[in-house]
Amino acid sequence: MTALDLTSAKPDAEARMRPLFGLARAEIADVIGEALSLDAKKARMRASQLWRWAYHYGVTDFEAMTDIGKEMRAALAGLFSLERPKVVDRQVSIDGTRKYLIEVAPGALIECVYIPDVGKAGALCVSSQVGCTLNCTFCHTGTQALVRNLTAGEIVAQVMAVKDDLAEWPSGGDDRRLSNIVFMGMGEPLYNLDNVARAIEIIADGDGISISRRRITVSTSGVVPEIARLGESAGTMLAISLHATNDKLRDELVPINRKYPINELLDACRTYPGVSNVRKITFEYVMLKGVNDSDAEARALVRLLKDIPAKINLIPFNPWPGAPYECSSWERIEAFAAIVNKAGYASPIRTPRGRDILAACGQLKSESVKIRASERVKAVGSGQ
Does 14 participate in catalysis according to the annotation? Predict the structure, then answer.
């Protein structure tokens, strides 16, 4: 019997140790097939094995892949990296919420938040960009300039790092702690839709992390031209960061409204692929004292959404240093909710989670700083 010759599996320096996270299953098979001179069927089989070990069992070492031969494990280890991003800081709130400061690349820091007892078991709020361009006036993240989009791998890596911290391997099962993913962290997901959609494809794959698209929600501030493409390419639940019932106020709170006003946004919601009474769109409405919390605005919100399958999340404003707003009183929020409920809409009041560690909705902001290319070159040249 001739032994398998894997000497050709030693890739050149440029191709060596490609990050696995972010690659589609077919791309993994292509890399394996070309590097190891395997036919398409065998390459797909090896890719499926690797996928399951990485995403279902969460292994960090190729030596743990016990149904793959020793020589093949070594060859795969020469092709791919299972390295997680660096968790720079981890804070735990008194309510169990966990906030992570993650370095996805040198100089690129993002935050993501795990919230227990949300959805079926717990939700992870992931980021899609380093910083943000939208400048929503009630949002702390909006005060941090955009550095760049995250890659699909960097989005998926947030899930991997948090599952490591929760010790939730293998994936799936009735005792899982992470059941939902929400794209409500740093950045505007629809300004990075290609990478977001690719990440969702990986997260939803049934042989790996296996979080259903029905349990993945993408929130947008209103990038109207991309809303239909989100439904077609990702098939997730949709959330709209609305916060006002008229263009004048929304122009102030959510400046993207000046480009895509409310009527255009709601037209896109009405035609969102798959929208129905079973797959309702969530409208997020932050409660700002004396700004958007009157009974008249509650009634206007009901009229605005009357023909859209919707639920309305009322979000008590979460303060942050230097914020120009105050949170509506609890009595005012409940009065607002009563009007919306009476009209037949589910309007849960979101319980603030992680406020004490600035992990609540609208509070995320990393300390990433955009470094100019000339400064990077200077740093490299000086050996820093």
Answer: no
Report the SS3 class of residue 203. Answer: helix
Domains for the chain: give ranges and CATH numbers: 8-81 (1.10.150.530), 86-357 (3.20.20.70)
pLDDT in tens, 61-116: 999 999 999 999 999 999 999 999 999 999 998 888 999 999 988 888 898 999 98
Give the separation between CA 315 and CA 206, rounded to whole angstroms: 33
Q: Which residues are paired to 124 by β-bridges?
A: 114, 181
The CA distance from 99 to 223, in Å, is 27
Q: How far is CA 356 from CA 61, 95, 96, 351, in A?
A: 36, 9, 11, 13
User: Helices 295-304 and 330-342 sit at what angle, rounded to 10 degrees?
Assistant: 30
What is the spatial distance between Cα 154 and Cα 102, in angstroms, rounded to a whole number?
A: 10
**CB 185, CB 126: distance < 8 Å:** yes
Active site residue 264: no
Whether the CB-CB separation of 327 and 289 falls below 8 Å is answered with yes
What residues contact residue 31 under an 8 Å CB cut-off, 6+ apart? 18, 23, 79, 80
- List 132, 136, 327, 361, catalytic entry: 361
3-state secondary structure of 19: strand
Give the active site residue among 34, 111, 168, 188. 111
Other CB atoms closer than 10 Å to residue 26's CB: what's the count? 11
Q: In Å, what is the CA distance from 175 to each residue of 170, 171, 203?
A: 11, 10, 18
pTM: 0.86
CA distances from residue 213 to 67, 180, 206, 210, 279 in whole angstroms, order as listed: 30, 9, 11, 9, 11
Residue 245 has what DSSP assignment? Answer: S
